[in-house]
From TrEMBL:
It holds the Pfam family YceD. InterPro entries: YceD. It comes from Roseburia lenta. This is DUF177 domain-containing protein.
Length: 174
């Protein structure tokens, strides 16, 4: 969803609130696609600070379905999105520093979906677990160990130590 913000950029000390609903239905992160189940409508506040900078602010929450990192069960994750950006203005135009990446502003159009997406990337959790003591899946048969134990032998022997294991098994006292 894009908005024309030329009136805010070109008028000193102008403030404008834009009610926003996003058109995003999923988010792509690290090669995966995750469905957005809920996003709260919110407002973006644009403020021209004495023709020197454009202040962009707003906050909302959104719910995303992400698989558990251990057992792959679906987990509902709530992300708090807090937008607080400052963009420099010069002669009624947006100015970005050379090292600053602009993905959400083009001339005088604000791309709200891209702005939200950038904030999702920053706030994305590093590890998602269905519960703190998630047991994961069996590496042998793939059974979800939170649901039931499969009985597989999951002992992993270091191949460099396998000969020692053979010696212990050969001379084992009965």
């Amino acid at each position: 969803m894009k908005f024309d913000i030329l009136d805010v950029i070109s008028t000193a000390d102008k403030k404008r609130e834009i009610p926003v609903t996003t058109e995003m239905s999923e988010v792509s992160v690290s090669g995966g696609r995750f469905p957005i189940t809920d996003i709260k409508p919110f407002s973006i506040c644009l403020t021209n600070d004495n023709n020197k900078q454009l202040l962009i602010s707003g906050d909302t929450t959104l719910d995303v379905v992400v698989p558990c990192d251990r057992c792959l069960s679906d987990v509902d994750v709530t992300l708090r999105i807090a937008i607080d950006r400052k963009v420099m203005l010069a002669d009624g135009h947006v100015q970005f520093a050379e090292d600053e990446e602009n993905t959400f502003l083009e001339e005088h159009e604000l791309d709200v979906d891209r702005l939200i997406y950038d904030e999702i990337l920053v706030n994305w959790p590093t590890k998602v677990l269905c519960k703190d003591d998630c047991k994961g899946i069996c590496p042998v048969c793939g059974q979800n160990l939170n649901q039931q134990d499969c009985g597989c032998d999951r002992q992993v022997i270091d191949p460099r130590m396998a000969k020692f294991q053979d010696i212990f098994n050969e001379f084992k006292e009965v």
